[in-house]
């Protein structure tokens, strides 16, 4: 009887400990570094539901499921193979834990749940009035465009970082005088950006969850352009789709416009693009447009590739053909389309009913980029209206 009563009290204490919002603190996974970032955490292991999430900027990273086992709390991210595990004691207090990523071999990031409410630093100052763009370079000459705009919370800035492969997902940050501190966890990756933004002397560092550090600095604006539409072609390779041979040259596709998007299960921008494409697939599949995804993975293992395709179709809600097309290399998948360059993920390619190339869009800038996202939607809609079979 005493044991039963103790379990009831223990459960009540644990539930009470989680009745308020908490803080998820993620640490850079490298000895000697003390960098970390805090995110509002909405979680209650006693009431497993779909509305449990991590808040980052204007975005929410939802958990697929949360459960208790022995002395551990487990939480699994919905759209990525990411798992959190925290130890807890009889009082319901959680201790430091860790998170792992199934697609990052050997990765084990440190994490903690803090019991206090989430608060921004008290000494936050405002960035220069209005929106402004800065061009940076880091990670092997990767060009990025940073847009800072006020968030819904006073003093907090939502940040959009656009690169050749699209935006970096939901990012939040703040300024203390002229120093910037920004961070993001998109369900798959975690990074911190620190630096100073002064006139003519912007510089800082970009740190990933594995501890890799890349310096950045302001450079001159350089515009990179995608391949011209005349320089790519329809794949002639024969693929396998659900144990059957598949070819874009098959008679059943003659006279039909084609939309092909390249993606990988490891690519969070690809998920964002899938979410945005759904409305177009529903609207134009009935007007003759054939939509398909070419899935490129990082492991050259057939069973693994098919498992990842099942995963993203289920989690991302892909209801159009998802075709395995090999592994990502310097030349793949560009060589499928006769393009002599490395294509970013995702890349969207469109062919008219005569299978002539009419459009290519590298990367994807999601809803966090505001007008940039809305502009893409309008342009893509107009294109499909033009090429669809009425």
* Strand line-up in the sheet with most strands: 1-2-3-4-5-6-7-8
Beta-strand percent range: 35-45%
Shape: globular
Q: Which consecutive residue ranges, at least 5 long each, have pLDDT under 50?
A: 1-20
The helix count comes to: 4
Which structural class should the secondary elements be placed in? Answer: alpha+beta
- Count of individual domains: 3
What is the correct CATH architecture of the largest domain?
3-Layer(aba) Sandwich
Distance between the termini: 73 Å
Rg on CA atoms, Å: 23 Å
Examine the coordinates and then state which fold CATH places here, giving the name of the CATH topology of the largest domain.
Glutaredoxin
User: Fraction of residues in helices?
Assistant: 10-25%
Number of strands: 24
CATH class of the largest domain: Alpha Beta
CATH superfamily assignment of the largest domain?
Glutaredoxin
Main sheet attributes: strand count, strand direction, barrel closure? 8 strands, antiparallel, barrel
Instruction: Summarize model confidence as the mean pLDDT.
Output: 78
| Secondary-structure element series | HEEEEEEEEEEEEEEEEEEEEHEHEEEH
Observed structural traits:
4 helices; Lipocalin; 38% strand; 17% helix; eight-stranded antiparallel β-barrel; Glutaredoxin; 390 residues; alpha+beta
How does this model look, in words?
The protein has 390 residues and is of the alpha+beta class. It has 3 domains: 2-114, Lipocalin (Beta Barrel), CATH 2.40.128; 132-218, Quinohemoprotein amine dehydrogenase alpha subunit, domain 2 (Lipocalin, Beta Barrel); 229-387, Glutaredoxin (3-Layer(aba) Sandwich). The chain is built from 4 helices and 24 strands. The protein has an 8-stranded antiparallel β-barrel with strand order 1-2-3-4-5-6-7-8. Strands 9-10-11-13-14-15-16-17 form an 8-stranded antiparallel β-barrel. Strands 22-21-20-23-24 form a 5-stranded mixed beta sheet, with helices on one face. It is globular, with a radius of gyration of 23 Å. The relative contact order is 0.11. The model is unreliable at 1-20 (pLDDT under 50).
